[in-house]
Amino acid sequence: MRNRSALILTTVLTTGALTLTACGSRDKDNNDDNAGDKKTVVIGFDAPLTGDLSALGIGMRNSAELAVKTANKENTVDGVEFKLQPLDDQAQPSVGGQNAQKFISNDDVLGVVGPLNSSVSQSMQKPFNDASLTQISPANTGTELTQGDGWKKGDKKRQFKTFFRTATTDQVQGQFAAQYLYQKANIKKVYLIDDQKTYGAGLAASFKDTFTDLGGKIVGQDHVNPEDRDFKSVVSKVKGKGAQAVYYGGEYPAAAPLSQQLKESGAKIPLMGGDGMKSEEFPKLNKKAVGDLGTSVGKPVEELDSAKKFIEEYNKNYKENMETYGGGTYDATWAIIEAVKIVVDDNDGKLPSDSREKVLDAMSKVKFDGVTGTVSFDEYGDTTNTMMTAYQVNKQNKWESKFSEAYKPR
After folding, report:
1. Which 3-state string (H, E, C) describes the chain?
2. Which stretches does the entry tag as region Disordered (predicted)?
3. pLDDT of 27 over the 90 cut
4. 143: which of 103, 171, 197, 315 fits an S-S bond (Cβ 3.0–4.6 Å)?
5. Is 310 exposed, middle or buried (0-12, 13-18, 19+ CB in 10 A)?
6. How remote is the C-alpha of 283 from its chain's centroid?
7. What pLDDT, on the 0 to 100 scale, is given for residue 409?
8. Minimum mean pLDDT range among 19-23, 37-41, 340-344
9. Tens of pLDDT along 88-129?
10. In whole angstroms, how far apart are CA 24 and each of 34, 110, 191?
């Protein structure tokens, strides 16, 4: 499958020029009379580009930019020139909401990639839905974003027709983490901590349900402020509970000091978290990270034949690490490009006046072999790719993949 994916991806990258060319300004650099006017299609991008989570956001932005550059270089959509409009949400829902309005007010924006944080996405979903503007996140894992708050009881209802993602849900990730810890790592007693944010709380809840169903015991549970860096009080509670591991629902800026203080207290147990923790920054910020565990969506791009070209081009163009969401962001951006191509092909090679609505309709038809594998979406807008990977920080203070599986929710 991977060899085939690599061939298809190469085809996309070399003939992808047939995909995109469509929306507003004249291409003044094109002197070919046969080329005619090119339209500019803007793809919006939203993530934290400053602040504690900027390492993740910058890797995402670079990957989205690379997809746009590739589409333009290969003339993926005939007659269309793509442009990326990146905005910094600072990981703040209020800023994300303001950014959503900026994208909506620009008629050339036909789709938006991002954000990183599920809580930020909650401030953007309704405005985008009202404007029929496609949103696709490579990082949002909050299950309720697509399936509603009733998903735990089996009452799944799509919330917004405009929201899609290339990342799988916290339901999948939390269950996968619990199963890995209980069955593979042979850990039966866990202390549970979350940062009370949409992402962290949802991940911890999913983990707890599955871990206890398997027979595991939650020996204690706490909530922390994600802005805090002093966790001595909660660490002292963990020490007295006989936990074999701590599971943390949250992101790396707080996870790193929590883990270090846990080890320094004398508790020689690993901290485990999700994709918000599994950043290259985590071991850099944590002197005691060795042995800690993390999960992330998809298989490591370094192990995928389908990602070789992407990795090569990324490293050639950018000095910053692509981080956890690089491949998924490239695929998310390319999904919008594919949707634009469908619309242009269906309209005699031109963008229609109702391009936003048409691009949104085309998203349900999008299916291609991308960097991370086959990219397509189910009836909720969720990715059909449920591959998950468990990682561990090795003695070289680097994340090392330990186990991958296409995981289906229990």
Report:
1. CHHHHHHHHHHHHHHHHHCCCCCCCCCCCCCCCCCCCCEEEEEEEEECCCCCCHHHHHHHHHHHHHHHHHHHHCCCCCCEEEEEEEEECCCCHHHHHHHHHHHHHCCCEEEEECCCCHHHHCCCHHHHHHCCCEEEECCCCCCHHHHCHHHHHCCCCCCCCCEEECCCCHHHHHHHHHHHHHHHCCCCEEEEEECCCHHHHHHHHHHHHHHHHHCCEEEEEEECCCCCCCCHHHHHHHHCCCCCEEEEECCHHHHHHHHHHHHHCCCCCCEEECCCCCCCHHHHHCCCCCCCEEEEECCCHHHCHHHHHHHHHHHHHCCCCCCCCHHHHHHHHHHHHHHHHHHHHCCCCCCCCCHHHHHHHHHHHCCEEECCEEECECCCCCECCCEEEEEEECCCCCEEEEEEEECCCC
2. 133-153
3. no
4. 171
5. buried
6. 20
7. 77
8. 19-23
9. 999 999 999 999 999 999 999 999 999 999 999 999 999 999
10. 18, 11, 55
Residue type at position 406: A
Q: Which residues are within 8 A (CB) of 207 and not within 5 positions of it... i.e. 6 or more apart?
A: 174, 175, 177, 178, 192, 247, 249
| Average of per-residue pLDDT values in the chain | 91
pLDDT of residue 153: 83
- In the numeric block, which tokens belong to residue 307? 């990602």
> For the purposes of burial, counting CB atoms within 10 Å of the CB of 27, is it exposed (0-12), middle (13-18) or buried (19 or more)?
middle
**Domains of the chain (ranges plus CATH)?**
2-168+301-377 (3.40.50.2300), 171-297+388-406 (3.40.50.2300)
Percent of the chain past pLDDT 90, that is, above it, reads: 86
Q: What is the rounded distance in angstroms from the CA atom of residue 29 to the CA atom of residue 7?
A: 32
pLDDT tens by residue, 122-134: 999 999 999 999 9
